[in-house]
Amino acid sequence: MKDILDLERYPLDRPGDPACAALVERCRQDLAEQGLFSLHRLVRPEAIEACAQMLVPRFAQAHIHKRAHNVYFLKQVPGLPDDHPALRMVETQHQTLCADLVTDSIVTRVYEWAPLQAFIARVLDMPRLYPMEDPLARINVMGYRAGEGLNWHFDRSHFTTTLLIQSPEVGGELEYRYNLRSADEPNYEGVARVLAGEDPQVRVLPLAPGTLNVFLGKNTLHRVSPPQGPRARVVAIFSYYDRPSVRFSAEEQMGFYGRVA
Ligand SMILES: [Fe+2]
Fold first, then answer.
1. Which CATH number fits domain 18-257: 2.40.50.140, 1.10.357.10, 3.40.630.10, 2.60.120.620?
2. For FRET with 44, which of 31, 38, 71, 191 sits at 20 to 30 Å CA-CA?
3. Which long-range contacts (CB under 8 A, 24 or more apart) does 77-81 make?
4. What is the pLDDT of residues 201-251, one digit of tens each?
5. Which helix (H) or strand (E) holds 65?
6. What's the CA-to-centroid distance between 75 and ligand 1, angstroms?
7. How far is the centre of ligand 1, averaged over its atoms, from the C-alpha of 151 (Å)?
């Protein structure tokens, strides 16, 4: 793994080392202050470049997702009129390579590497994390070309783990409004303000290829700014769970990917 990951800078394989404990502490602080933490260039530049070169041509066979949605991914929100500005429709479009199309890449090796799972669990203060067993969903490599993008939304999962593989020339940055809502305050007016481009507290996070990011997106509204130029934004989404053996049903696989594994 040391040829792929920068383990001198990030001693994930030595959990008892004081340097690792200090890293855990730094990541916890970032989580508390910004709702995310990043391990900048965890994957070495040569390794992530080779990975991008190998995976980008495979998007020719990728499944294209295109959908109009609101930030909640819901048809209706109880108590909110359909024309409320918080329910404004936005468009998301991307290409997806499912896990079974990237088994020979370093993305799969990093995803399955137990010390990384243990590290993320430790930062998040969870007993353990498990990789998903689903042959399609465990890893999704998403490609966003110019004109495509991941639009404003709240996540349904508690946290999301991503590994950036390639950045576009311009755009493709994570834009987020930290803790815009809470469990008991939906803050619809605040959502409308972000959608209208009128919230000065929206932050931008530029990420370098090879960077691992863990993001708490349940109450933090976020999107990826539209990529520009010929190079696509390519990012791997790692699905980890607090329990083993999680899989999708055949119906779920069909619904998400248009095929069954
Ligand atoms: Fe998200």
1. 2.60.120.620
2. 31
3. 80/188
4. 999 998 999 999 999 999 999 999 999 999 999 999 999 999 999 999 999
5. strand 63-69
6. 18
7. 9
